[in-house]
């Protein structure tokens, strides 16, 4: 009689066996097309590194996401600590919720600027206001004013909004 453990072992073993046979019999051309062929000297000479202007916005997002992740990690340590009081855990939970809400609002504003003005933007909401970095070579006062009005239209109370053009 086969028990459950033996049945699971046979099932997983046969799955691994089938996948390994499939991998071995796969054509080698398929494996080569998925990666870059760096061995060719002509390809190595022709390849150049180009930095796009939107990389600045990506760097700002990554920096912000890393800072938020470290804050959330610290707060989660408070939540999982058995020595923390209920009040500390509630404050940590509320702070995590606030950070997630703020990030969602930033993404909403970025999408609004992208849809309205067809420009990539990075939005950072702080206690003192809202900072907007726009990826555009055109840095007119009219465009900045329009972006500020668009963002302000989402809020009932006055927000201090700054717009910075990055190109």
Strand content: 5-15%
- Decide which structural class fits the backbone: mainly alpha
Mean pLDDT: 82
CATH topological fold name of the domain at 55-166:
Helix Hairpins
Provide an overview of this structure.
The protein is mainly α and 167 residues long. The chain has a domain of 112 residues: Orthogonal Bundle (Helix Hairpins). It contains 6 helices and 3 strands. The chain has a 3-stranded mixed beta sheet, with helices on both faces. The protein is flat, with a radius of gyration of 26 Å. About 5% of the residues have low confidence.
In short:
The protein has 167 residues and is mainly α.
Attribute tags:
single chain; 167 residues; mainly alpha; three-stranded mixed sheet; 6 helices
SSE order and pairing:
Elements: H1 4-25, H2 28-34, H3 41-46, H4 55-80, H5 86-117, E1 120-125, E2 130-135, H6 141-152, E3 161-166
Parallel strand pairs: 2-3
Antiparallel strand pairs: 1-2
Helix pairs in contact: 4-5
């Amino acid at each position: 009689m086969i028990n459950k453990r033996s049945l699971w072992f046979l099932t997983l073993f046969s799955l691994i066996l089938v996948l390994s046979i499939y991998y071995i019999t796969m054509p080698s051309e398929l494996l080569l097309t998925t990666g870059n062929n760096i061995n060719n000297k002509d390809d190595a000479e022709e390849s150049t590194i180009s930095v796009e202007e939107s990389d600045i916005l990506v760097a700002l997002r990554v920096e912000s996401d890393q800072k938020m992740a470290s804050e959330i990690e610290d707060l989660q340590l408070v939540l999982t600590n058995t020595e923390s009081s209920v009040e500390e855990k509630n404050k940590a939970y509320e702070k995590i919720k606030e950070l997630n809400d703020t990030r969602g609002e930033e993404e909403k504003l970025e999408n609004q600027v992208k849809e309205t003005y067809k420009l990539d933007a990075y939005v950072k909401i702080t206690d003192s206001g809202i900072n907007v970095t726009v990826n555009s070579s055109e840095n007119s006062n009219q465009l900045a004013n329009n972006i500020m009005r668009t963002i302000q239209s989402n809020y009932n109370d006055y927000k201090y909004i700054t717009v910075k053009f990055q190109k």
